[in-house]
Amino acid sequence: MGSEITKTEFSAEDFRQFQQNLRKETRLLMEWFAADAFEKHEVMCGIELEGWLVDSDCTPAARNDEFLARVNDPLVVAELSKYNFELNVPPHPLNRQLPEFLRTQLQTLLESCSRHAREMGCQTIFTGILPTLQDRMLTLESMSSMQRFHALNREILKSRSLHPLKIHIEGASERLEVVHRDVMAEAATTSLQIHFQVPLSKAAAFYNVAHVLSAPMAALSANSPFLFGRELWDETRIPLFEQAVNTPSFVDPAGRPVSRVTFGHDYVRESLREVFLENLDGFPVLLPVLFDHDYAMMHHLRLHNGTIWRWNRPLIGFGDDGRPHLRIEHRVPAAGPSIPDMVANILFFYGAILHLQPEVPQAELTFEEARANFYAAARSGLDAQVRWTSGDSMPVETLILQHLIPGAILALAAAGFRSSDLRYYLVDILAQRVASRRNGAWWQKAFIKKHGPDFRALTQAYLENQRRDTPVHEWSL
Questions:
Q1: CA distance linking residue 342 with residue 471, whole number of Å
Q2: Which SUPFAM superfamilies does the entry mention (predicted)?
Q3: Which of 51, 55, 139, 187 could cross-link with 80 by S-S, CB 3.0 to 4.6 Å?
C-alpha cells in the first residue's frame, strides 16, 4: 500500500480483471510454496514508524505535503492524513549490530524530520493517539493528497453500501460514540510495525507465535489511553482501528464476522499459504488497480494483501536479486514513547519469538485464548490478566518478567547479541517499565490525574520528555 496509483474510478470490468489476475498470482504463489522458492538465508529485521506533525500549540498540523517535500527522503512517506508521516528503517540482519543500527537509524531519521518540521514552525511527535486530536479534525479535507487514499475511502464506503462507520468504545469509566462517513478516524492511530523476514520452514510457527505474543506486546507498549478527551482503553488504538475501517468480509467458524482489520480467527495449520488463499476467497477486492507487469512480481496479490490489516500480517517481498521472501509484519505496538523504549520493544519481540517458536506454545494455548489475551491487554495494559500455556491465569506483568524477558535474553544471547545491549534494553528499560507498570499509557493517565484534563499541557510535556531520549518509566510528571 506504499505506492501511488494512477486510477481512482473503477468499473465492473476492472474488478473482474483484477480478480482474475489475483487468482493467477495466487496460483503461482502456491507453486512457490510447494517448491520452497523463497529466500532461505539469514533472518532479516525491519520497522516502520508512524508520526505526527503538530504546531506550536501541539495541535495537529495538516502540512505533510510541504513537510515531505522538504525532507525529500524515500524513507519518509505519506500516511492517510495530512497530519501524519511514516519512517522506514532499512532491513538489517538479526545479529549483534542490530540494537545500535536501530537506534542510530531512528535518531538520524527523527533528527532530520524534526529539523525540517522546525523550519516550518512545526514539531514531530510519536505516540499511539495524539492527545490533542479532536474528532472535528478528521475530515476528508485533512486526507493526504495521494490518490490511493481517496480511492480506498470511496471503495470502503461502497462496500458498506455507504452506511456510516460507528465508533463505540467503552472504557472503565468513560465511553465514546461517534459516527464517521469516511475512514478518517483510522488516521488517529499511529503505530510501530515490526517486520521479520523468515524462511518458509519456520514461517508458519513464527506467524502463530506472533499471535501468542500480541497480548504481552500490547500490554508493555500501550500508549493510547485517550481519544477525543475521553479515557478509554490503555491501547485505544486497537478498537479504534478495527471500527474505523469496519468492512465485514466473511463469517468465521464461531459465527463472528471477520473484518479487514482483524486479529484473525485461527492459527495456520501448515503454511502461510493458507492466509493468502483466505485473502483470495474471503476478502472482496477493494482497489482493482491493474498492472501490466509480470505476474511473478505479485503486484495484484500484494496490493490486495495491503488492504487487509491483520494485526499480524504475512507479506511477500523481493530482494535486490529479485528472489521472493516471506515476512511477518507485527502491527500491535503503538508509536513512542521514546527511541530507547521502541528499540527495547523491538528487541523483546525478536527475542521472545525466537524463544517461543521451538516450543510451539499455540499447541497449549488455544487461538480463542490468545485472542482474549490480546483484547484484555489492549484494554487494561500492564494490569491485564492473561492465560498462558500452563492453562493458568496470571498477571501479564508476571508472564513478561518471569517467562518472556528471560527467554528473550537467552535467545538473543544465543544469536550473538552483546550482553551489555541485552542488559540495557531488556533489563534496565523493559523489565523496569513492566515492574513499575509505567508504560506510555500509565504516564499519560498519571499526568492528567495530577494536572487535570489539559491535553495541550500533556502533549507538550510528552514531547519534552520524548526529546530527552529517556525511557518512559523515568519520565517526570
A1: 9
A2: Glutamine synthetase/guanido kinase
A3: 187
Tell me the pTM.
0.96
Better pLDDT: 320 or 384: 384
Dump the DSSP string for 169-213.
EE-SS-EEEEEESSSGGGGG--BEEEEEEE-HHHHHHHHHHHHHH
Cross-strand partners of 15? none
Does 12-42+146-474 carry CATH code 1.10.12? no
- Where are the chain's structural domains? 12-42+146-474
DSSP class of residue 294 equals -
pLDDT tens profile 285-305: 999 999 987 899 999 999 999
pLDDT at position 1: 41
Average pLDDT of every residue of the chain: 95
Query: Using CA of residue 106, residue 435, residue 367, residue 261, what is the dihedral sign?
Result: negative
First vs last Cα of the chain: how many Å apart?
A: 39
**Residue 4 pLDDT greater than 80, yes or no:** no
